[in-house]
Write a structure and sequence with these properties.
Elements (H helix, E strand, L loop, with lengths): L1 E5 L3 H12 L3 E6 L2 H10 L3 E4 L5 H6 L7 E4 L4 H13 L5 E5 L3 H4 L16 E3 L1 H14 L5 E5 L4 E7 L11 H7 L5 E8 L2 E3 L12 E7 L3 H7 L9 E5 L3 H12 L5 E6 L2 H10 L4 E4 L5 H6 L7 E4 L4 H13 L5 E4 L9 H4 L3 E3 L1 H11 L5 E8 L4 E7 L9 E2 L9 E8 L2 E3 L6 E2 L4 E7 L3 H8 L7
Parallel strand pairs: 1-2, 1-4, 2-3, 4-5, 5-6, 12-13, 12-15, 13-14, 15-16, 16-17
Antiparallel strand pairs: 7-8, 8-11, 9-10, 9-11, 18-19, 19-24, 20-23, 21-22, 21-24
Length: 458
């Protein structure tokens, strides 16, 4: 597939790395020559320096025979115009744009993106994606990572194995025997910095980080088995009142739990805007690193503190300070992946990677087969893929034990006949079933092949 990626920042680079690693023909466009050089020197991609919305630049990038364009520059307007030019001048069939401004995302203006107006097939909103990720973390406070699949029927939980874990040093095969009715599967384990798909004989050790696929009704029991306790979130402090913080607070206000929320924002204009938009949330103007202001916000009585400013270091320090003041759960927004290894030593319980959430959204729309959801794990080390099994898929009609999955792939859940099934060797995968797979990055192309429809399907 020939793809043009406009914008060579963190998101564009990450998407280019994914697609180039899967042997696609990728060209990166950016008006910053240094970013283009970084992409061409570190990835198997071509690069063009120039403004992505200029027709001559897109022509140089090979737009005349491109199958997809992904506009992920820092400017909403450039992304929109790029998609318009890609459609009107070059007839590129698939156009994806990243848009940040809330005004462009209002549902009442959704007609703007129809083919006869400004043809954009998929709109990705980083702030909304990050806000949803933050709400996921808050709803599963015992995990450092989480994502929903199968319309919320199944949850992926990232759990750290500590001394309190009752099943430490127990082979995973025995866990299936001991808890036969538990609809839960350990699909990934990170040990000493390396992520792998475990085999039945593998054990969990103290210090491991594991990814567990759990039926939503079994989450409390699964957490108990792994030595975790779910805390109800009744009081939340949010450091940062921008788009992400405001969206999270709005959701918490409208939720059934009636969570008491306080926001700390250092920019007066942003703080005033948040105060106007929110009804029950208290907005405090000041520095989230100020111990007196944190005390005024009641951080020591809060069930969770969410740090979502636009500065990674402020988020980390505010989370550390909130933890020191007695808050049991602190979550930080981290853009720079090199800072992630500091999370555990600093005592930060969970983090949100905006780049990973945006990458996951874009991957959902470029994976082959009928893929409905993709979640990128770690620094693009693995993906969790939800897809529908079609009649022409190579796995249709086979039992799981007979499917030749690569070593780095595990089935996390199967949805068939209106019911979520725990994957067992004898479970048959049929046309129309939905399947959730964990796959290491190197094995994703093979997963796509197994999910792929044959050409005569069309």
């Amino acid at each position: 597939m020939k793809v043009i990626i406009c914008g060579a920042g963190q998101v564009g680079w990450q998407i280019a790395r994914h697609l180039a690693g899967e042997k696609n023909d990728v060209t990166v466009v950016d008006n910053n020559p240094d970013l283009v050089r970084r992409a061409t020197e570190t990835l198997d991609v071509q690069g063009i320096a120039g403004f992505a919305s200029y027709p001559d630049i897109l022509d140089k990038a090979g737009a005349r025979d491109a199958e997809m364009i992904i506009a992920a520059t820092y400017s909403d307007e450039v992304n929109m115009v790029t998609c318009q030019v890609a459609h009107s001048v070059f007839s590129i069939p698939r156009k994806i744009a990243r848009l940040r401004s809330e005004s462009y995302l209002e549902a009442i203006y959704s007609d703007l993106y129809r083919r006869e107006h400004m043809p954009i097939d998929v709109v990705i909103s980083p702030e909304r994606e990050v806000a949803e990720a933050a709400l996921q973390r808050l709803s599963t406070s015992a995990s450092f990572d989480s994502e929903s699949f199968l319309d919320g029927k199944v949850q992926l939980l990232g759990l750290t194995i500590d001394d309190e874990c009752p099943v430490v040093n127990t082979p995973l095969r025995q866990l299936s025997d001991l808890f036969s009715t538990l609809r839960s599967v350990v699909v990934g384990v990170r040990r000493e910095g390396t992520l792998f798909a475990p085999e039945p004989r593998d054990q969990l050790f103290v210090g491991d980080s594991c990814y567990v696929m759990v039926h939503r009704d079994d989450i409390p029991r699964a957490l108990e088995i792994f030595g975790k306790t779910a805390r109800k979130q009744e009081r939340v402090v949010i450091v940062g009142g921008g788009n992400v913080g405001l969206t999270v607070a709005t959701h918490l206000e409208s939720g059934a739990g009636r969570v008491r929320t306080k926001i700390i924002e250092r920019n007066r204009a942003i703080a005033e805007h948040a105060a106007e938009e929110l009804e029950r949330t208290i907005v405090l103007h000041g520095d989230g690193l100020d111990a007196a202001l944190l005390a005024e916000a009641g951080v020591e009585r809060a069930d969770a503190t969410l740090c979502v400013t636009d500065d990674d270091k402020v988020n980390m320090l505010a989370a550390v300070r909130a933890k020191a003041e007695g808050c049991p759960m602190v979550i930080a927004l981290i853009n720079d992946p090199t800072l992630v290894p500091l999370m555990e030593p600093l005592g930060i319980d969970a983090y949100i990677n905006p780049r990973a959430t945006t990458v996951s959204s874009i991957l959902r729309h470029i994976r082959h087969g009928r893929v409905s959801s993709v979640y990128s794990i770690g620094d693009a080390e693995a993906e969790v893929i939800e897809a529908e099994v079609l009649s022409t898929s190579p796995i249709a009609g086979s039992q799981i034990r007979d499917i030749d999955f690569p070593e780095g792939v595990l089935v996390g859940a199967v949805y068939k006949e209106d019911k979520v099934h725990k994957p067992t060797g004898g479970l048959r995968i049929d046309e129309g079933d939905k399947i959730v797979l964990f796959s290491l990055a190197k094995d994703v192309p093979e997963v796509e092949r197994l999910l792929q429809v044959s050409i005569d399907f069309f």
